[in-house]
Design brief:
By secondary structure, the chain is of the alpha/beta class. It has 14 helices and nine strands. The model has no long low-confidence stretch (mean pLDDT 95).
Length: 297
């Protein structure tokens, strides 16, 4: 099977590499020529547009920052839809507004093209080792046809419903992740202000009910002052904005989401938007006038 891959960024590049490792023939496109060249050296074929990738592939995967980027890459002048014949399939693994997923899918369906929305969770480390979680929306039979392809990049793949359901699941994930990071930062700030080593507090509570994947990934980053992005603040702002829009659309109250969104907006104003979302701790540090760091760090 020849697979087109459009979007070779922080997540897309390792995901594409895992497809190559799994034996898939890849046709790749991105505006970042260095990233494309890295994959070309590994055996991928490089092309000059999403349209050309679609012409050469049976299925195209898009992994792009937000809804406008997906719309342009799929429906634009040099987009996937221009290169697809009826019967081909788009798998959009970007995290975008589910309403937009459905609109794009409808336009493709009119051309005889099926679409899955299959956003991912896990950040760059899990993209590298092929253990991301993927939540998929679309026709069940299309999902089953490309299940193995998706699993070549993932540790968990779950079908959650019709087109758009994948991005609803992803938004739910992003609400929980953001809220967990904020609560973790708040708790470590309390420990520091109370004169207790935050690192020892982390060690004490990680095995109990408060323990989580988020805590295991983000507490060490906060304690070591390592804010190299696995998932950037500005991307989480995008996701929470999409969550709030979706919530407004269906009249779902999201007060915690709104508050954490404003915390992240504050960090963006302070110039931290390209840092990892674990830098939410800086919001609390600024309010409390301290630096959260384990005494042994």
């Amino acid at each position: 099977m020849k697979v087109g891959f459009v979007g070779i960024g922080i997540m897309g590049k390792p995901m594409a590499k895992n497809l190559i490792k799994a034996g898939y023939a890849l046709v790749v496109y991105d505006k970042n020529n260095a990233a494309v060249e890295e994959l070309r050296i590994l055996g991928a074929e490089s092309v000059w547009s999403a349209k050309e990738a679609a012409e050469k592939a049976e299925v195209v995967i898009t992994m792009l920052p937000n809804s406008p980027h997906v719309r342009e890459a799929v429906l634009g002048e040099y987009g996937v839809a221009r290169g697809f014949e009826p019967g081909k399939v788009l798998i959009d693994m970007s995290s975008i507004d589910p309403t937009e997923s459905r609109k794009i899918g409808e336009q493709l369906r009119q051309k005889g093209i099926e679409m899955l929305d299959a956003p991912v969770s896990g950040g760059e480390p899990k993209a590298i080792d092929g253990t991301i979680s993927v939540m998929v929306g679309g026709k069940k039979e299309v999902f089953e046809q490309y299940n193995n392809l998706i699993r070549a990049m993932a540790g968990s793949v779950v079908y959650v419903g019709e087109l758009g359901a994948g991005n609803i699941a992803k938004l739910a994930n992003q609400i929980i992740v953001a809220s967990n990071i904020a609560a973790l930062a708040e708790a470590l700030t309390l420990a520091k202000k109370a004169g207790v080593d935050p690192k020892l507090v982390f060690e004490a509570i990680r095995g109990g009910l408060a323990g989580s994947t988020v805590m295991e990934a983000k507490a060490p980053m906060m304690l070591e002052r390592n804010f190299k992005p696995g998932f950037r603040i500005n991307l989480h702002i995008k996701d929470l904005n999409n969550a709030l829009n979706a919530g407004h659309e269906v009249s779902a109250p999201l007060p915690i989401t709104a508050f954490v969104m404003e915390m992240m907006q504050t960090l963006k104003s302070d110039g931290y938007e390209l840092e990892d979302h674990s830098s939410l701790v800086k919001y609390y540090e600024k309010l409390a006038g301290i630096c959260v760091r384990g005494e042994e760090s």
